[in-house]
Amino acid sequence: METFAPTALKELVVTDSARGPECPAPEGGGLVRTLLCKLDGFAPLTEQDRAALVGLTGYARPIERHTVLAEQECVVDHALIVLAGFAGRSKRRASGRRQILAYLLPGDLCDRGALHGYPLDHAIETLSPCRIAKVPRAAYLDLLGRHPRIALAVQRARLAEEATAREWVANIGMRSGLERTAHLLCELLERLGSIGAVSDGQFDLPLTQMDPAETLGLSSVHVNRVLQALRRDGLISLRGHRLRILAPRRLSQLAEFEAGYL
Amino acid sequence: METFAPTALKELVVTDSARGPECPAPEGGGLVRTLLCKLDGFAPLTEQDRAALVGLTGYARPIERHTVLAEQECVVDHALIVLAGFAGRSKRRASGRRQILAYLLPGDLCDRGALHGYPLDHAIETLSPCRIAKVPRAAYLDLLGRHPRIALAVQRARLAEEATAREWVANIGMRSGLERTAHLLCELLERLGSIGAVSDGQFDLPLTQMDPAETLGLSSVHVNRVLQALRRDGLISLRGHRLRILAPRRLSQLAEFEAGYL
DNA sequence: CGGCGGTTTGAGCTAGTTCAATGTCCGTGG
DNA sequence: CCACGGACATTGAACTAGCTCAAACCGCCG
After folding, report:
1. B249: part of which helix (H) or strand (E)?
2. Greatest CA separation found in chain B?
3. Per-residue pLDDT reduced to its tens digit, A223-248
């Protein structure tokens, strides 16, 4: 169950490096680490591969919360790599109601824009302050061309993303509010764990309760009550934006969470 | 709005050719037509490409309703091409409750098994009697290798499938039962239209009300009532397994259905 | 004719919504 | 240092969409 990364854990690296423009990017590969970590998990990378990825840091910029990185209907011509913070894909109804379709966590990347010149069927926006690399199409294609292992890892990452999307359909479609929420937390634990952003079952959740609500197809009021129930039952503890999974086993049982598909 | 295929419509081709083992495959490319139709829509195919696809007919077999084509957790080593009937991806909970994750309609194909040797995160099963080609990995890879346009079309088809999956998350997550159902019908109209299986707003829906229910995260009782409401309001007519969209415009407005992403 | 698989209907119930008030934390300006 | 305001979290209370269970009904096939 415990899938924490074997590397030394730099606690809070996500938040304090995402705090804003005045905060300089940390030394060397401090943030690309998430990307390296994640891609390496899909296909082992060589030193050259890693160096090339570290080189992408030049494209990184701090970005405020609730910034739209790519509008629906728009053709984008760069790849996005999340280095810190939470971003997400989302759709909006005419009524204003929003549905979050996927989380983009540190190490995740999104290259639909760069690879295929299709207009996006959804928007991409930051859910928290983020540090994000916008890699121009040419540079990105060049990267993939020169580094087949990276290309492979990226392709596998896409498969994992598809699997997650299916998991979300199932989650929203056939689970109760409590179970859905538990499932989401399990997913976050696993995904953040795989990039070393979990320490002792604890991680930062730089979201508003509105975000899980729009993720899970629930009202924020209900999410609030569900979180209280999870706390009451001793499954989690949550103070501010710091979440701790107290009973991962029981939580994943409640959610029928299947680890391993990433 | 009307995206009906320009080719001559062979009404009922889906059902009568999917009826069962005793029913011989129709003359020539009668059923691959759907595949040709669909892929050609993504990337124009040459005569050689088409011939190669027609060649796949040899792998086609009639398959009964509710047959599991690929079990969850299993590694599959062939690509599946649906030539007639409805199949789908699905997940099941321990309680037995099922969620349908995607429909595989005639012309759709599913090559995760053949391309990457990963165990499936979901099952694939027929929802109606089908005619399906199981193409062995080697033959499939060979096909893609020799026919780059087919490979391109397949890749684009995958993008469209991903977009559909996102649409489903949004559908289940933020729409009411009525809207969800309307949206699903719009999707079916569009997808079946693109393979010429819609005639005069009418198409075969070889499903039980349980299937839409498990698709939309509703109970079959509720789906029943929703369908009645749609009929009452003159949006659709439904007799047996024959569905007619009477007011496509109003229906897609109700569902906030965005055509065009396929 | 009888039965099976599916649809339809009814009635009661509950998970989750909506709306609105209240509480809490935190940053800002005086 | 404190008052103020804004953004979130929490609570309460009324309401409702959709669920469950169970009975009837319908069409089809053997």
Report:
1. helix B248-255
2. 52
3. 999 999 999 999 999 999 999 999 99
Residues of A numbered 110-149 whose beta carbons fall under 8 angstroms of chain B's beta carbons: which are they? 112, 116, 118, 121-122
**pLDDT for residue A117:** 86
Whether this model's pTM surpasses 0.85: yes
H/E stretch holding B124 reads strand B123-126
- Residue B174, chain A, CB below 8 Å: the answer is yes
Whole-number CA gyration radius for chain B: 18
**Residue ranges per domain, chain B?**
13-255
pLDDT in tens, A38-87: 999 999 999 999 999 999 999 999 999 999 999 999 999 999 999 999 99
Could you give the 3-state DSSP secondary structure of residue B122? Answer: coil
Task: Provide the pLDDT for residue A115.
Answer: 84
Give the C-alpha separation, B41 to A136, whole Å.
29
- What is the pLDDT at residue B12? 30
- What is the C-alpha end-to-end distance of chain A, expressed in Å? 13
Q: Are B172 and B101 spatial neighbours (Cβ–Cβ below 8 Å)?
A: no
| Burial bucket for residue A221 (CB in 10 Å: 0-12, 13-18, 19+) | exposed
Does the pLDDT of residue B205 top 70, yes or no? yes
Query: Position A56: which residue type?
Result: L
- Select from A165, A174, A258 the Cβ nearest to the Cβ of B166: A165
Q: Is B9 left (phi over 0), alpha (psi -120 to 50) or beta?
A: beta
Instruction: Please indicate if any CB of chain A lies within 8 Å of the CB of B101.
Output: yes
What values do phi and psi take at B144, rounded to 5? -65, -40
CB contact under 8 A, A165 and B163: no
Q: Please give the pLDDT value at position A29.
A: 53
CA dihedral sign, ordered B249, B252, B256, B258: negative
pLDDT over 80 at A22, yes or no: no
Question: pLDDT at position A87, please?
Answer: 98
CATH dotted code for B13-255: 2.60.120.10
Instruction: Tell me phi and psi for residue A212, to 5 degrees.
Output: -55, -40
Q: Is the dihedral of CA A215, A216, A221, A226 positive or negative?
A: negative
What is the rounded distance in angstroms from the CA atom of residue A15 to the CA atom of residue A31?
Answer: 11
Quote the strand ranges of chain A, DSSP E. Answer: 60-63, 68-70, 78-84, 87-92, 98-104, 109-110, 123-126, 130-136, 202-204, 236-239, 242-245
